[in-house]
Amino acid sequence: MNMQTETAAIRVLLVDDHTLFRKGLAELLEQRGTITVAGIAGSGDEACRMLAEARPDVVITDLNMPPNGGLTLLRQLVADGWHGPVLILTVSDAEEDLAAALQAGAKGYLLKDMEPEDVVDAVQRAVRGETVVAPAMTLKLVNLLQGGNAAATKADTLKLLTAREHEILQQLSQGLSNKAIARVLDISHDTVKLHVKHILAKLNLSSRVEAAVFAVEQKAAGQARRN
């Protein structure tokens, strides 16, 4: 994966078998000014052929496209020695598809009904090394991760958070981006970023996704105790 500077546009390779969708998405992404669509492919095979010339930082691919689908493409990219993030962008909100994508090594699972700015935010976070999941899939991710005792052992650490950090953690659990949280709480984007960094450090978590899952688990545990 190419290292990004603050001003460098992120190079994206789009892969989708629907011509109108991939062209429309390309236009929407490039309007934001922080992303360059380096290539557009209609199949996994075409994407593999374009990879060397496109030099993407991120691959965004549909999940269910003929003949082999996005997960086959992901595995082929890895086999070919490419280690950048692959984001699945799909209409499927099935938990089993989310599980299959993450198990195959996808760094993100996004839905096609997401707002364009949220897709842009997900791309930027993936380049920084985060795993990104559509807000609507957060509870399903929790279901996949439940079964261990990690949430219980971290529960007491919630008392370490400030009131503002609790507010931001709640917003994270709803899948909001930093920009969206800044708007909701009427604070700056940089302030939100700093609070998120402190939350992850205090809870000993490595990503926003883990923080969102943790918050949802704690809320569910609290409701169960009250019942």
Task: Describe the 3D structure.
Residues 1-6 and 147-153 have low confidence and may be disordered. The protein has helices at residues 19-31, 44-54, 70-79, 95-104, 116-127, 138-145, 150-154, 163-173, 178-185, 189-203, 208-226; strands at residues 10-15, 35-41, 58-61, 86-90, 108-111, 132-133. The protein is globular. Helix 6 (138-145) packs across helix 11 (208-226), helix 8 (163-173) packs across helix 10 (189-203) and helix 9 (178-185) packs across helix 10. The chain is an alpha/beta fold and 227 residues long. The chain has a 6-stranded parallel beta sheet, sandwiched between helices. It has 2 domains: 10-135, Rossmann fold; 146-226, Arc Repressor Mutant, subunit A (Orthogonal Bundle), CATH 1.10.10.10. Helix 5 (116-127) links the parallel strand 5 and strand 6 (132-133).
